[in-house]
Amino acid sequence: MAPRHMGLAAVLVLATQMGATQISATQVSATQARADATMGLVPTGPLLAGVPAGALAGARLAQRGDAPSGPTAPTAAPRPPAPPRLDPAVREAGARLAAPFRLTNADGARSCSFALKAEQAGPGLAVEFDRQACAIIGFSAQVAAWLPDPSGSLRLLNVQGRTVAEFTEATNGSYEALREGDGVYFLANPAAADEDTGIKVEEVVGEWDLARQAGTPVCRWTLLDQPATNGNGKALAIASGCDAALLRFGPVAWDIEGGNILVRGDTDAAVIRFARQEDGGWARTPERGRPLLMNRP
């Protein structure tokens, strides 16, 4: 539409919508002339006698771009997403496994109380622990919930529901997890953690064969009843001819903890934990895909 007719067209449309019933040719002509003279503004005089004053006022405001708007309904605040509903079977499994534990690293140097609860919380079931006390175990800051897994493991979750650490069942009601690039951690049964489950030093000192499969030794070492040179546990002597791959972690000491034998390497992160087996031997835990057995020669 040509610019000279835009003002008139707007007036006619608004007037029609707002109740004008008759507009004569003379009124139209006069309005068009005035629109030409004022670059399309709505006329200010009584040129459209048949057009209600309210319609003209609305047209002027519409042309200026400041027409009043109607009341706007307040915008409702977005609701937080509801937590997913847990399967009843998951809740039942969680109720059976919920218990107090101690969260600890492999050598027991860092630990704190850590309880698994049966109530739902966020993406799973609730956890209860002193975050300041557990800050010595770095990944604990990410933990917001837990869930039992159909495989029998326990998964600690972050607020998004992603797995922070997965613990598999070990011995004496405890669970263990291997975090790549971090180390081995345990959710230890407090009763088992507070006692050595009857294992005495004299029972385990002496020679032991190490094997990947029963009956095929790859190394022999001796657990000694004397302090290690690094002051961390008891001394350990390695026989010649040991599998070099096995010795990469640099075993230098051993100790008994929570019913397990811990063999420590030359760094704090280098620890192998052996759990007692029904046949009287010992096996590395967690297995990590390759078994390591320790039996008497």
What features would you describe in this structure?
The chain is of the alpha+beta class and 297 residues long. It has six helices and 16 strands. The strands form two sheets. The chain has an eight-stranded antiparallel β-sheet with strand order 3-2-1-8-7-6-5-4. Strands 9-10-11-12-13-14-15-16 form an eight-stranded antiparallel beta barrel. Strand 14 and strand 15 (282-284) form a beta hairpin. Helix 1 packs across helix 2 (25-37) and helix 1 crosses helix 3 (53-64).
Report the strand count.
Answer: 16
Can you give the mean pLDDT? Answer: 76
Termini gap: 104 Å
Shape: elongated
Strand content: 25-35%
Radius of gyration: 40 Å
What brief labels describe this structure?
6 helices; eight-stranded antiparallel β-sheet; alpha+beta; disordered N terminus; 297 residues; eight-stranded antiparallel beta barrel
Task: Compile the SSE list and pairings.
Elements: H1 3-17, H2 25-37, H3 53-64, H4 88-97, E1 99-105, E2 111-121, E3 124-129, E4 145-148, E5 154-157, E6 163-169, E7 175-179, E8 183-188, H5 190-193, H6 201-204, E9 206-211, E10 217-227, E11 234-238, E12 253-257, E13 260-264, E14 271-276, E15 282-284, E16 293-295
Antiparallel strand pairs: 1-2, 1-8, 2-3, 4-5, 5-6, 6-7, 7-8, 9-10, 9-16, 10-11, 11-12, 12-13, 13-14, 14-15, 15-16
Structure summary:
With 297 residues, the protein is of the alpha+beta class.
